[in-house]
Write a structure and sequence with these properties.
Elements: E1 4-8, E2 11-18, H1 23-30, E3 39-49, H2 51-66, E4 71-74, H3 78-86
Parallel strand pairs: 2-3, 3-4
Antiparallel strand pairs: 1-2
Amino acid sequence: MMETIKFQDNNWIISGDATLIQVPSIMKFTINYDWKNSISIDLKEVKEVDTSLLGLIFEWKRQAKRYNKTVKIKNTPTNLLSLAKLYGVEEFIS
């Protein structure tokens, strides 16, 4: 499945798979974000995930913190929550 990211104001909507194969291209769409505003990332339409998505979320949060902004994750898929719990980082993706 093709991954996509849509930008609606300060909301990013990610759909499709978010695994090691797709995450680099998702990152390319967000690498130059100016961080003037905090954002929310909606994962409702995400299908397959792996730990690459966790890494990407952490990177977004690091970038936001540099500019005193926040990243809120919405509609976290159950499989991503399971991975986060396995690695003891579930509080970082809420």
